[in-house]
Amino acid sequence: TKSSESSETSSITPVLDQQENTNEAIASSRRLGQRFIILHYSPFKAVWDWVVILLVLYTGIITPYTISFLSDEDQKRTNLNTHAATRQFNRERTSIHVLVIIDVLVDFMFIFDILISFRTTFVLKETNEVITSPILIAKHFVIDSWRRFGADILGALPWDILFFGNGSHSTIRLANCFKLARLLRLVAFVRNFQKTEYRSAVLFLLMLLFAIAAHWFACIFHFIAILEGPNLQVKYSWLDHLADKYKMPYLVNDTLSGPDTKSKYLTALFFAMTSLTSVGFGNVAANTNGEKLFSILSMLAGSFLSASILGSVTTIIIKLYQGTEELKEMKQSVDDFIKHHRISKQLAKQMQESFDHEWKNTKGIDMNSILKTFPECIQADICLHLNRELLNNCPVFEDASEGTYI
Fold first, then answer.
1. Which InterPro entries match (predicted)?
2. On the chain, which terminus has fewer CB atoms closer than 10 Å, C or N?
3. Are the C-beta atoms of 205 and 316 separated by less than 8 Å?
């Protein structure tokens, strides 16, 4: 009986150990009065991380659009307000854009994320211990992870509020560029997400990143035209050609003249997509020196992005059909073995059925070689899990304990 009790004690699974450690961590945090501590693997933290990723994607899409397109519209509104003749007439066109209000709310969400980071546990690498002390958590976040902390602070500051009513439009544009520091979160997310087994999701993520890159290039292409426009003696940028094509020329005394924002964005996006994919229809051409230089860089970047995405897509497709190809090769080997040794049809059928049954259960995975990579205690847990249904249905083990199985 003593030996059986000792065997039961030694057979405690690592999963149960982790659960006990988790319970102890929670209990100790409550005893010390450490309320509002968030476990790094809790459901709330997992959901919040996805919310932050969505906010980062929002920033990566809206911020370049705001800098390139909306800032230009804001400057036009300012010019309208400086003239008494146009102030009252264009009153409805000088209001704050709704995206600016949403952007301020997103800024506060990132500030809240920093507060959550100061209350989220982490695992100490040296001892694999879950740290729940607020002081140690703050020290780890500020000192040990100072790069992430600096990027979070830089990206979370509400620059729209800090510069509201003050500063030039160029200063506000530069300040909004600081928000792009949030994209460092997306880099870490993509790096970890590529390790996931959901290859279809990885493929979708790659296509999404390509679309975001095209959006960025479209915003930069428009921003170049805005910067070069006032210095051109002869108006021949792509915006001027677009205005002539749509019969909406830019007028000196009318700051709201020219093509609308939707037409300008779609045209810039069309140019960006044709440049990145190296298609080049020629409908929208680079005319000024700045536009030509950017066109060259965009084609080089497009070649790199296309090669990277194509290589990743090829790897994903190969992995998706890797099991099917292995099954075909092994089936062909069995058929060749049957033909070479002239095995009877009855025995050959039994061999094929046995092979299909074995593949259905194992999917071609060598269980013995995989089990050998784990410690003996984990091997016992794995074997117990794999044979759980058989043991539960066997009357002999009906009242047996976990230690008896092992």
1. cNMP-bd_dom_sf, Ion_trans_dom, K_chnl_volt-dep_EAG/ELK/ERG, K_chnl_volt-dep_ERG, KCNH_animal-type, RmlC-like_jellyroll
2. N
3. no
